[in-house]
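ok so i was messing around last nite and threw this chain in just to see what happens. nothing serious, just curious
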Amino acid sequence: MSDAFADFGHTEQAAARRAEKVRALASYCWERALGSADLQTMTDAARRRLARAADVHPPSSWETWGLVCDALDDKDAWAKRNPAHPAATRSHALGRAQWVESQTLPPPGPAKPVRGDDVPLFGDDGDR
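result:
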């Protein structure tokens, strides 16, 4: 193996791929109102699920997550300076609870209603 391939993690190609991954992860987190402190307190498993939800192969090191945290901090600072800019708003801010409170993904598909005795199963007519 040549020296050129001995440390692929620090080549220009790896840096470009890492930057692309950082942008995708930071964008996904920003839209869901997740900040750097949230990422730092998540478990490794939760961060892997987060990356997969963002359609990104989960980073294998904290180095990439650290860059995501830096990008989120920069975006937060920018948004505070430019609150009227459309890019300063978060379109999926309610998604934050999925990650911060439970640190798990919601079940796939629509949520199933919980049936109680006082809740009609088929509609308002109470026909069961």
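not much to say yet. Residues 12 and 44 are 27 Å apart (CA to CA).
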